[in-house]
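Duplicate of earlier report; CMP deaminase input re-posted below.
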Amino acid sequence: MAQDVQDNARKDWDTYFMDIAYMVSTRSRCPRRHVGTVLVQGKKLLGTAYNGAPMGVADCSEDGCMIVEEYELQVEDGEERMIKKQRCIRTIHAEQNLLLFTDRIDREGSTVYVTDQPCWTCANMLANSGVKEIAYHRAYSKDSDKVIALMRVKGIVFRHLSAYEPPAQAGMTVVS
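Output:
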């Protein structure tokens, strides 16, 4: 009986690793979006990372965001339209930091849990990193369709954990 109660209270693996990713995101000093990610092989945690300026360089909370505007041509229902995107270029994304600070051999066949759906650049990097699966919580609509298509082509399992609830200690309001 005591075992049943303990098992019912125990978190599933997706929740466990996504909770860790969210707690890692609390290290970020980005005022727009805190992103955290973890690398998992089986059930073994191999690395963590968050978004931020390079080590030893002032971050956005100290020197402000470095926002650039980009325009992208999108075709919807046969009609072309230009979409304006704003991106901060001061920070290294969490997924990029994870790839910088983990070994390729550890990434082969592994799973990445990331608080936010990867942007196009991070998706490209992850697609070439050896991972077999990416699980994320918050959608990132600016690049979503392209990223989903890329993951399909690469055969990488790409899961949106939409029902997941982050730990209260990791909450922040996301600026789009």
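The radius of gyration is 17 Å.

Merging into the original ticket.
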